[in-house]
């Protein structure tokens, strides 16, 4: 396997693992929200919906990236980097609120 393909495969594995991790975190947030009530519950549900949308967007970008293979364009790479940064920031913000 050529080095570029190997690097691409390693990166895909890391990104997919992180998506799974965030999926688990999202389920934990949902469980906590289910125990809350009133305005707190409404805020949690709003944040969870936002995270779910960002997670779906990141998954779509990752699918595009994977389909492109190791020859992904710089534009596509930037797109996935941006989606990843937004998703990480959103998860960090919600995690802080759920503490």
Brief characterization of the structure:
By secondary structure, the protein is mainly alpha-helical. It is 89% helix and 0% strand. It has one domain.
Write the layout of secondary structure elements.
Blueprint: H1 3-35, H2 38-68, H3 74-97
Helix pairs in contact: 1-2, 2-3
Key traits:
99 residues, elongated, mainly alpha
What would you say this structure looks like, in words?
- By secondary structure, the protein is mainly alpha-helical.
- It has one domain (3-97).
- Helix 2 runs antiparallel to helix 3.
- It is elongated, with a radius of gyration of 16 Å.
- The protein has three helices and no strands.
**Structural class, judged by helices and strands?**
mainly alpha
SSE string, helix = H, strand = E? Answer: HHH
The counted number of beta strands is: 0
Shape: elongated
Main sheet summary = none
Poorly predicted regions: none
What is the count of helical runs?
3
Number of structurally distinct domains: 1
Overall average residue pLDDT:
86
Cα-based radius of gyration, to the nearest Å: 16 Å
**In whole angstroms, how far apart are the ends?**
45 Å
Helix content percent band = over 70%
The oligomeric status of these chains comes to single chain
Strand content: under 5%
């Amino acid at each position: 396997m050529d080095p570029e393909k190997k690097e691409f495969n390693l990166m895909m594995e890391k990104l997919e693992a992180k998506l799974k991790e965030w999926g688990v975190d999202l389920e934990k947030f949902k469980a906590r929200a289910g125990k809350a009530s009133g305005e707190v519950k409404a805020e949690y549900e709003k944040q969870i919906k936002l995270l779910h949308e960002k997670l779906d967007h990141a998954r779509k970008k990752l699918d595009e990236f994977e389909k492109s293979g190791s020859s992904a364009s710089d534009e596509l790479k930037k797109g996935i980097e941006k989606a990843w940064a937004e998703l990480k920031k959103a998860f960090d913000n919600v995690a802080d609120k759920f503490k």
